[in-house]
Amino acid sequence: MRTRGAKRGCSNRALGRGGRAWLAICLFCLWPVLASLFTGCSSPSPEDTARLSASSGNRTVCWILFDFDSLFCSPCLAPLLEFCRSLPVPIQEEKVRGILVYGARPDRGQDGLYARIVQKKMHGFAKANSLQFPIVLDGLHVFNSLVKSSVQALLFDDVEQTVKAYGFPLKPGERDEILQLLLN
Amino acid sequence: MMKNGKMFRRAAAVVLIVPLSIFAAEQRLKVSIQEILSIGALDDEAIFQWTGVAADRDGFIYVLDGLDYSLKKFDAKGKLVKKAGRKGQGPGEFLAPRLLACSEDFLYATDQTVLGISVFDKDLQFKKRIPFSAPLTDLFVRSDETIAIVVMGFPGPGKIVVMDGSGRIQTELAYYEKDAGPMMDSVSAALDGQGHFYLAYLFQDRIERWDQRGKRLWSKNLLGIKKVEMKKIGDYVLPTEVCYKDISLDDRGRLFVLAGKHAKNPSRDVYVLSPSGEWLSTLTLPDTTHCLYIDRQNFLYVRANEGITLKKYRLIYE
Question: With 0-12 CB in 10 A as exposed, 13-18 as middle and 19+ as buried, what is B17?
Fold first, then answer.
């Protein structure tokens, strides 16, 4: 299962200069499209909003990219789920967005049907694992080449105006680093 | 005398013709399916990814769902009547639920990552876990005192173990060839009323029938595959293409074999064999499935929509 992602992917850590430039261009171009996908997400409760007030001026967000196949591999997503459990719910709801990457299935005929199947499975998985952040499907398959390991996190650092990439399982200290950047 | 001779010839003709006509009828057997029930759609929350299914005499259908770590009970009309289980390794919990079987009173469930067999009653109350120290690839239950399991053959050789309800081993069937190589002895299995085992090899073109004493009664290959495709994965060279995915028996002891990659319609073609291993018919399912299950009332259960839908069919023989 994992070899599919490994073949097609390249981790951001391993990206060369050309790869980083490509990533930056790709994200810049897709930002309006993806941002529109995330509009209309559920709002936090008044209490949660109050907890977020300290970071209200900070627009740093974290995108978590993970592969559809990994939903069926309990150990593959264990580090991500552990990370999510450590994030306060308001942070998940407001600043974390999931992108589920999946391969096209021409044998399924219309890609729309397969996308709906993927969406339903993702919904079941997210509900059973109490994931609080919105997750969208990469219906255009633009992120397929970015997902080498089962999970990648992209942090859009609003303070430094940079994109940082993390691969799961996170290295020591990275979880706190991400949390700090999201809270500051 | 003449009259007696004529009668003898007629009797002899009847003796000869009747078995031949039965055989010819078996050869002409055509198997088709009629949909009875469909559980799980794109816009509901009934099933997210079913992995194992079992049905009882009262028509209730039990399903293991791998994406919400649950055991679900549906009535004969497909309505969800109860759901149990959650993510975890404790009593009644699942990490990767896989196989399901039922007896008169209990359900038996396995998990790919948690060793042993979890036993539930028909109200989905967890009762106990039967200990076993190796992963299982197949499970079938004849009674609460006769539970047969196929033990995963990697890295060691696979075998079929029959045990009682407390996990005490009664018999072991060593069907493998010791030099077969890693995973080459992976099988899906079925147990008939006479206590004979049917084996369909996942990575070999072999379907076999064995008696309980460990004697192979027959072996067939239907696909004409001579060379097994292998690939180096990590430190091991492993087979990659599945020949046969699952088997099940109907109420007359006919064997239904779900074909894998090499079939004309992969994961859709089902070969129907007589108890003696003769090919009778090929049934092509409307959608791909990872498993097939035939219940005691002779209904066939298979997957559709990548596992979010469970289909129940009536088997029709012509």
Answer: exposed
User: A104: which 2 tokens?
Assistant: 């096209």
Print pLDDT tens along chain B (318 aa).
Answer: 444 555 555 555 544 444 444 444 455 699 999 999 999 999 999 999 999 999 999 999 999 999 999 999 999 999 999 999 999 999 999 999 999 999 999 999 999 999 999 999 999 999 999 999 888 989 999 888 889 999 876 666 778 999 998 899 998 888 877 666 778 888 999 999 888 999 999 999 999 999 988 899 999 999 988 888 888 887 888 888 999 999 999 999 999 999 999 999 999 999 999 999 999 999 999 999 999 999 999 999 999 999 999 999 999 999
How far apart (Å, rounded) are the C-alpha atoms in residues B213 and B188?
19
Whether A38 contacts chain B with CB within 8 A? no
How do strand A96-101 and strand A135-137 relate by DSSP bridges?
parallel
Question: B307 CA to chain A: closest CA distance, Å?
Answer: 9
Task: Tell me the backbone φ, ψ of residue A96, rounded to 5 degrees.
Answer: -115, 135
For the sheet containing B269-273, what is the strand order?
B244-249, B255-259, B269-273, B279-284
A4 touches chain B (CB under 8 A): no
Q: Closest Cα of chain A to B95: distance in Å?
A: 7
Tell me what ipTM this predicted complex has: 0.83
Token couple for A51: 């907890």
Q: How far apart are CA A175 and CA B26, in angstroms?
A: 66
| Residues of chain B neighbouring A121 (CB-CB closer than 8 A) | 48-49, 67, 306-308
R_g (Cα) of chain B, nearest Å = 21
- The one-letter amino acid code at B227 reads K
Domains and CATH numbers, chain B: 2-44+132-317 (2.40.10.500)
